[in-house]
Specification:
Layout (H helix, E strand, L loop, with lengths): L1 E2 L5 E7 L4 H4 L3 H5 L4 E7 L6 E6 L5 H10 L4 E3 L2
Antiparallel strand pairs: 1-2, 2-4, 2-5, 3-4
């Protein structure tokens, strides 16, 4: 986890999201979390890294649950 400011942090996850098109399925699930400001998926990385910028403390388990609800596996990278 990389801290940006006192009110912004980036959570980083390993996923099985294989393409940008597949990543678009996450949009409604991550939008359901008000603390999520922005997110990206790096499908070129071997770990298909999901980076989520949040505006307040957010338990990474909440992101993992939302990614799983979208049909993908996800684990936090530390």
């Amino acid at each position: 986890m990389i801290t940006m400011t006192a009110t912004t942090e980036i959570l980083v996850f390993k996923t099985d999201i294989g393409s940008p098109e597949a990543g678009k399925r996450l949009e409604p699930f991550l939008a359901a979390l008000p603390a999520v400001l922005r997110w990206t998926v790096d499908c070129d990385d071997v770990d298909c890294v999901l980076r989520v910028e949040v505006s307040e403390r957010l338990d990474p388990k909440r992101i993992i649950e939302q990614v799983a609800a979208a049909g993908f596996s996800c684990e936090e990278l530390t």
